[in-house]
Amino acid sequence: MQTIIALLFCLLLGVMVKAQGWFALLWLPLGFVSGLFVTARIALPILLGLPRAIHLVSSGEMRAAVYRRLLFPPVLWILHLSVILFLVRFFWPSAVAWFETNGALSAGVWLGVVGILLSALSKKSRADFHADFDQSYRQFYVHRDARRRRPNRRRSSTVPS
Predict the structure, then answer these.
(1) Which site in 5, 26, 48, 108 is 20 to 30 Å from 145, CA atoms measured?
(2) In the chain, what are the domain boundaries?
(3) CA 45, CA 106: separation in Å to the nearest integer?
(4) Are the CB atoms for 79 and 1 separated by under 8 Å?
(5) How far apart are CA 22 and CA 16, in angstroms?
(6) Is the dihedral of CA 129, 133, 134, 136 positive or negative?
(7) pTM, 2 dp
Protein backbone atom coordinates (compact mmCIF):
# COMPACT_ATOMS: atom_id res chain seq x y z
CA MET A 1 0.00 0.00 0.00
CA GLN A 2 2.86 2.37 0.80
CA THR A 3 4.32 1.72 -2.63
CA ILE A 4 1.08 2.77 -4.29
CA ILE A 5 0.95 5.98 -2.25
CA ALA A 6 4.62 6.71 -3.06
CA LEU A 7 3.98 6.22 -6.78
CA LEU A 8 0.89 8.43 -6.64
CA PHE A 9 2.91 11.06 -4.77
CA CYS A 10 5.63 11.09 -7.47
CA LEU A 11 3.08 11.17 -10.27
CA LEU A 12 1.12 13.96 -8.63
CA LEU A 13 4.31 15.90 -7.94
CA GLY A 14 5.25 15.75 -11.61
CA VAL A 15 1.78 16.86 -12.71
CA MET A 16 1.73 19.71 -10.21
CA VAL A 17 5.22 20.94 -11.21
CA LYS A 18 4.04 20.97 -14.81
CA ALA A 19 0.83 22.82 -13.91
CA GLN A 20 2.00 25.23 -11.17
CA GLY A 21 5.73 25.48 -11.56
CA TRP A 22 8.57 24.80 -9.18
CA PHE A 23 6.68 26.02 -6.09
CA ALA A 24 4.70 22.80 -6.28
CA LEU A 25 7.86 21.10 -4.98
CA LEU A 26 7.24 22.98 -1.72
CA TRP A 27 3.45 22.91 -1.45
CA LEU A 28 2.66 19.32 -2.42
CA PRO A 29 4.97 17.70 0.18
CA LEU A 30 3.85 20.20 2.82
CA GLY A 31 0.20 19.39 2.12
CA PHE A 32 0.95 15.67 2.06
CA VAL A 33 2.72 15.69 5.44
CA SER A 34 0.05 17.82 7.08
CA GLY A 35 -2.71 15.64 5.59
CA LEU A 36 -0.98 12.51 6.88
CA PHE A 37 -0.38 13.95 10.33
CA VAL A 38 -3.81 15.42 10.99
CA THR A 39 -5.73 12.48 9.51
CA ALA A 40 -3.65 10.03 11.51
CA ARG A 41 -4.50 11.93 14.69
CA ILE A 42 -8.23 12.03 13.91
CA ALA A 43 -9.13 9.02 11.77
CA LEU A 44 -6.89 6.18 12.94
CA PRO A 45 -8.10 6.11 16.56
CA ILE A 46 -11.67 6.00 15.29
CA LEU A 47 -11.18 3.59 12.37
CA LEU A 48 -8.81 1.12 14.02
CA GLY A 49 -8.86 1.83 17.74
CA LEU A 50 -12.59 2.03 18.38
CA PRO A 51 -13.52 -1.38 16.89
CA ARG A 52 -10.66 -3.02 18.81
CA ALA A 53 -11.71 -1.31 22.03
CA ILE A 54 -15.35 -2.35 21.52
CA HIS A 55 -14.26 -5.96 21.02
CA LEU A 56 -11.99 -5.97 24.05
CA VAL A 57 -14.51 -4.25 26.32
CA SER A 58 -17.36 -6.54 25.26
CA SER A 59 -15.20 -9.61 25.90
CA GLY A 60 -14.26 -8.27 29.33
CA GLU A 61 -10.55 -7.92 28.60
CA MET A 62 -10.54 -4.13 28.90
CA ARG A 63 -12.30 -1.55 31.04
CA ALA A 64 -14.84 0.79 29.42
CA ALA A 65 -12.84 3.82 30.54
CA VAL A 66 -10.72 3.31 27.43
CA TYR A 67 -13.45 4.91 25.30
CA ARG A 68 -12.95 8.31 26.90
CA ARG A 69 -9.18 8.12 26.45
CA LEU A 70 -9.54 6.86 22.88
CA LEU A 71 -12.07 9.41 21.64
CA PHE A 72 -10.93 12.53 23.49
CA PRO A 73 -7.86 13.31 21.30
CA PRO A 74 -9.72 13.12 17.94
CA VAL A 75 -12.52 15.31 19.30
CA LEU A 76 -9.93 17.76 20.62
CA TRP A 77 -8.15 17.83 17.23
CA ILE A 78 -11.44 18.46 15.40
CA LEU A 79 -12.35 21.21 17.85
CA HIS A 80 -8.97 22.94 17.59
CA LEU A 81 -8.88 22.73 13.80
CA SER A 82 -12.41 24.09 13.56
CA VAL A 83 -11.56 27.06 15.78
CA ILE A 84 -8.36 27.76 13.85
CA LEU A 85 -10.14 27.57 10.49
CA PHE A 86 -12.94 29.80 11.76
CA LEU A 87 -10.50 32.41 13.06
CA VAL A 88 -8.40 32.40 9.89
CA ARG A 89 -11.53 32.62 7.72
CA PHE A 90 -12.87 35.48 9.85
CA PHE A 91 -9.69 37.55 10.23
CA TRP A 92 -7.77 36.69 7.05
CA PRO A 93 -10.12 35.75 4.20
CA SER A 94 -7.49 36.40 1.52
CA ALA A 95 -5.28 33.65 2.99
CA VAL A 96 -8.19 31.22 2.88
CA ALA A 97 -8.83 32.10 -0.77
CA TRP A 98 -5.14 31.55 -1.56
CA PHE A 99 -5.10 28.15 0.19
CA GLU A 100 -8.26 27.10 -1.64
CA THR A 101 -6.79 27.99 -5.02
CA ASN A 102 -3.38 26.39 -4.37
CA GLY A 103 -3.80 23.12 -6.28
CA ALA A 104 -0.53 21.54 -5.14
CA LEU A 105 -1.29 22.10 -1.46
CA SER A 106 -4.85 20.79 -1.82
CA ALA A 107 -3.71 17.77 -3.82
CA GLY A 108 -1.04 17.00 -1.23
CA VAL A 109 -3.53 17.22 1.64
CA TRP A 110 -5.98 14.93 -0.15
CA LEU A 111 -3.24 12.45 -1.02
CA GLY A 112 -2.21 12.40 2.65
CA VAL A 113 -5.80 11.77 3.73
CA VAL A 114 -6.21 8.97 1.20
CA GLY A 115 -2.82 7.53 2.20
CA ILE A 116 -3.84 7.25 5.85
CA LEU A 117 -7.25 5.81 5.01
CA LEU A 118 -5.68 3.23 2.67
CA SER A 119 -3.07 2.33 5.26
CA ALA A 120 -5.89 0.94 7.39
CA LEU A 121 -6.28 -1.77 4.73
CA SER A 122 -2.66 -2.92 5.04
CA LYS A 123 -1.96 -5.92 7.29
CA LYS A 124 1.39 -4.48 8.39
CA SER A 125 -0.14 -1.13 9.33
CA ARG A 126 -2.93 -2.81 11.27
CA ALA A 127 -0.42 -5.01 13.11
CA ASP A 128 1.67 -1.93 13.97
CA PHE A 129 -1.44 -0.12 15.17
CA HIS A 130 -2.50 -3.08 17.33
CA ALA A 131 0.96 -3.19 18.94
CA ASP A 132 0.82 0.57 19.58
CA PHE A 133 -2.74 0.22 20.90
CA ASP A 134 -1.73 -2.51 23.33
CA GLN A 135 1.18 -0.45 24.61
CA SER A 136 -0.69 2.87 24.79
CA TYR A 137 -3.80 1.54 26.52
CA ARG A 138 -2.26 -1.25 28.61
CA GLN A 139 -3.44 0.36 31.86
CA PHE A 140 -7.06 -0.31 30.78
CA TYR A 141 -6.58 -4.05 30.38
CA VAL A 142 -8.26 -6.25 32.98
CA HIS A 143 -6.03 -9.12 34.08
CA ARG A 144 -8.67 -11.80 34.38
CA ASP A 145 -6.22 -14.72 34.27
CA ALA A 146 -4.68 -13.69 37.58
CA ARG A 147 -8.11 -13.57 39.25
CA ARG A 148 -9.15 -16.98 37.97
CA ARG A 149 -6.02 -18.69 39.23
CA ARG A 150 -6.14 -17.37 42.78
CA PRO A 151 -9.12 -19.35 44.12
CA ASN A 152 -7.66 -22.61 42.77
CA ARG A 153 -4.35 -22.16 44.55
CA ARG A 154 -3.81 -23.27 48.08
CA ARG A 155 -2.52 -20.45 50.15
CA SER A 156 0.00 -21.29 52.73
CA SER A 157 -0.12 -19.33 55.90
CA THR A 158 3.03 -17.68 57.12
CA VAL A 159 1.58 -17.29 60.56
CA PRO A 160 2.52 -20.25 62.79
CA SER A 161 -0.46 -22.20 64.12
Answers:
(1) 48
(2) 2-138
(3) 24
(4) no
(5) 9
(6) positive
(7) 0.75
Per-residue pLDDT of the chain (161 residues; tens, 9 = 90+): 778 888 888 888 888 888 888 888 889 899 999 999 999 999 989 988 999 999 999 999 999 999 999 999 999 999 999 999 999 999 999 998 988 899 899 999 999 999 999 888 888 888 999 899 999 898 999 875 533 444 444 555 555 55
Q: What values do phi and psi take at 102, rounded to 5? A: -80, 100
Question: Which among 37, 19, 33, 36 is positioned nearest to 102, based on CA atoms?
Answer: 19
CB atoms inside a 10 Å sphere around CB 27: 20
How far CA 8 is from CA of 58, 98, 111, 117, in Å, comes to 40, 24, 8, 14
Q: Which amino acid is at 119?
A: S
SS (H, E, C) 92-155: CHHHHHHHHHCHHHHHHHHHHHHHHHHHCCCHHHHHHHHHHHHHHCHHHECCHHHHHHHHHCCC
Count of other CB atoms within 10 angstroms of residue 34: 15
